[in-house]
Design brief:
Distance between the termini: 47 Å
Low-confidence stretches: 65-85, 93-101
Helix content: 25-40%
Largest sheet: 5 strands, antiparallel
Shape: elongated
Number of helices: 7
Structural class: alpha+beta
Strand content: 25-35%
Number of strands: 9
Oligomer: single chain
Length: 242
């Protein structure tokens, strides 16, 4: 079975059309059609994406064969379409670093890259970064209601402190965002707090409170609760975490 036939088989197994697979990979239906007809080979990034989407390893997708047994000489034959395709695939993989590593070694390196990306995504699960949260009304007058929100980071690391913010969305139109400050006390090292003034907001406007973490320029948002203020002195909320 050729690479194109394997792509087609796994696409069909997932119930995807060529256009549907293309949408998931950011390519056209025509590109998928060429892959499946063995008229073109996906680039390295698309091979990684295909293996993740199909839930198989790159070895399984590429069907890499090992070298022939020692002393056994393969038959001499003229290169056909399959041989040319295999050569193109090897060149596409080797182009990743410009080295002459074997195809099997290149596949192993790509699989390790996929595993590292998956591991990184798991480590940055925002739900796992929250150990607890609380809130309280600290001022309530004609100018509006000032609310203090507080979150405790589950994995506080002073060597790599996260940027933390709170987001109130659904308040009429738009959203309120407030940068959180870490409480300076050593005992509360992983506690972050911020105050938000609900000025010009209706007292019964519902909103969703979320906490956000920023690492390496990427934001990770974790909803905490859906709020509704019944009047100027009382409120109800439905927790969304844990």
């Amino acid at each position: 079975m050729t690479l194109g036939q394997r792509i087609q088989a796994h696409r069909t197994r997932l119930g995807l059309s060529q256009e549907g697979l293309g949408d998931k990979l950011g390519v056209s239906r025509q590109a998928v059609s060429k892959w499946e007809a063995d008229g073109a080979v996906p680039d390295t990034n698309k091979l990684i994406a295909l293996s993740k989407l199909f839930g198989i390893s790159l070895n399984e997708l590429l069907q890499v064969d090992g070298p022939p047994p020692a002393g056994e000489r393969p038959p001499i034959r003229r290169p056909g379409a399959k041989a040319v395709l295999a050569g193109v695939l090897v060149l596409a993989l080797l182009a990743l670093t410009g080295t002459t590593l074997s195809l099997a070694a290149r596949v192993t390196a790509l699989e390790e890259q996929v595993a590292a990306l998956q591991s990184g995504a798991q480590e940055l699960d925002p739900a796992e970064l929250v150990a607890g949260w609380d809130f309280g009304v600290i001022n309530d007058n004609e100018a509006g209601r000032t609310v203090e929100f507080q979150v405790t980071a589950a994995r506080y690391d002073p060597e790599e402190e996260l940027e933390v913010f709170f987001l109130l969305s659904g308040l009429g139109v738009g959203a309120d965002r407030a940068q959180a400050d870490r409480i300076s006390s050593a005992q509360d090292a992983g506690v972050y707090t911020a105050t938000i003034n609900l000025e010009q907001r209706l007292s019964n406007d519902p909103f969703t409170l979320s906490v956000g973490f920023v690492k390496d320029g990427v934001e990770y948002l974790q909803p905490l609760a859906d709020f509704s203020f019944l009047d100027r002195t009382s409120s109800i909320y439905e927790p969304l975490w844990p």
